[in-house]
Amino acid sequence: MRNNFLSKIFRNKYFLLVMQLITITTFFILISGSLYVGPGNNYKLTKILQHTNLPNLLVWSYWFSLIVIIAIFFGRFWCSICPMELVISIFNRFGLKKEPGKFIKSGWVITILYTIILIFGIHVFLIQWIPSRMALYMLSLLSIVIIVSLIWEKRTFCNYICPIGFLLKLYSLFSTIRIKNKNQEVCANCKTKDCISAKRHYNFMKRSCTSNVNPPDLKYQTDCILCGQCIKTCPHDNLKIGYSKPSLKKIANLNFSSSEIAFTLIIAGLVAWEILFKWEVARGIYLAPHYFISNLFNFTGTLYKIDKALLFFIIYPSVIFLIFSLLMKVLSKKSLKNCLGNITVSILPIIVVMHLLSAILIMIEHSVYIKLAVSDPIGLNTANAILNKEIIINKAELLPWLITLVCITLPVIGLIISYKIIKLRNNNKAQKSIALLTSFVYFALYEFSMIGWRFDLIEPFLKTCH
Ligand code: SF4
Ligand code: SF4
Ligand code: SF4
Questions:
Q1: Strand, helix or coil for residue 180
Q2: Containing domain of residue 325, as a range?
Q3: Which ligand is nearest to the CA of 197?
Q4: Residue 378 domain-assigned (yes or no)
């Protein structure tokens, strides 16, 4: 019943197009509501404005959190209504349609772009805090999408450049929705293969798949952006979208490329930043090397921010990944790349589950600003009123015991899935033991921080240190 409903929606000629028109209109409304909004040089006001400006609040606290949550459970649904996909499908009809080169296809563009966004965009230019800069970021993204679509063929941007797409691809490994064929024989006897036909790549409606996958026989559902075009294109009505049990065996057999390992490593750093920072003690330990290096080299301003971001997103996760991978390499005699890939797949469930937790917490924590942001969408007056204590923000949590329960349970769920994947992946005893050790250490790091944060374990920690 649910599958039929979904298939009907995806087969409908206009539904996803209308959704994309809605999201692209929203995209421009968000830009116009933030383009001229900035706090000047007032740092304290900036910190508040990120929550009181409605477009900023919606993009960073709700849109980003929701697409992560949806991808984990239902796959790349965001991609099916993403306004950029609409822009791509319009512009690449008139473009040069070049085949992307080896470097673009390597996946390193995604990793490099994401690193630049995290380090320079978020930490140096504060696109997450200052609404006008968020708007410029969104406009830059749109320009890149247009340029890429005018030069390269098909969905080059989605397939090889979009970091969000790659993040959703990674997380949708665990999702339950995918495109399936109804009858294999129909496909086997199909002469026209309209779902992959090159003649149909640039049709606006009834397009063949431009994500370089074979719709009736998807190896991993993660490469499919759920655009529904193949369903509409199939002349035999032989494709549907429906429920499919996530296969841990398939995840266990994943072989990550170097660029994918690097991307996952950066995501691990991002998630650690969002989760571990909640407990003051973990934050202090985490920040200590950054303060030490900054003092030693007298880093201020931009250098201070770059040092901080490099430590959190690249150096810390690299050290953790490398220590365990080298240990695995020594004991198992496998190559370092093989061991890095093994460690990445082993802890992926914990990363995903902790990102899910982070997204849930962000949405709950920032919900106190929704009413204020709706009543003053630009948010400058509200931010000033909060700064001058004319408005008091009550951050008391609704159902705190439930949040505590979720914070403590989710890392355990991540560990259990990790354990199952490690068991399925490793025949080599040494690899299995190190993978298990890594995932347990990684789990303990989060679990301990969550317990510390929820039960406010500062005093006991200090006593233990003494
Ligand atoms: S891959 Fe990126 S650009 Fe493409 S549809 Fe998904 S989010 Fe949009
Ligand atoms: S999905 Fe449709 S178009 Fe594609 S091979 Fe099968 S029958 Fe042919
Ligand atoms: S298989 Fe291709 S055409 Fe079909 S929904 Fe997925 S991305 Fe779109």
A1: strand
A2: 256-368+396-459
A3: 2
A4: no
DSSP string, 3-39: HHHHHHHHHSSSHHHHHHHHHHHHHHHHHHTTTT---
pLDDT tens digits, residue range 319-329? 999 999 999 99
> What CA–CA distance (Å, rounded) separates 155 from 207?
12
Query: For residue 381, is it within any domain?
Result: no
- 317 and 409 together in one domain: yes
Is 205 found in the same domain as 262? no
Q: How many CA atoms lie within 13 A of 4 on its CB side?
A: 1
High-pLDDT (> 90) share of the chain, %: 80
Asked if residue 53 is part of any domain, the answer here is yes
Give the ranges where 33-63 is alpha helix by DSSP (H): 43-52, 54-56
What is the mean pLDDT of the segment spanning 339-358?
96
Distance, CA 179 to ligand 1 centroid (Å)? 17
Asked whether residue 385 is assigned to any structural domain, the reply reads no
Q: What is the pLDDT of residues 143-173, one digit of tens each?
A: 999 999 999 999 999 999 999 999 999 999 9
Around ligand 1, the residues with Cβ closer than 6 Å are 78-79, 82, 84-85, 157-158, 162, 164-165, 225
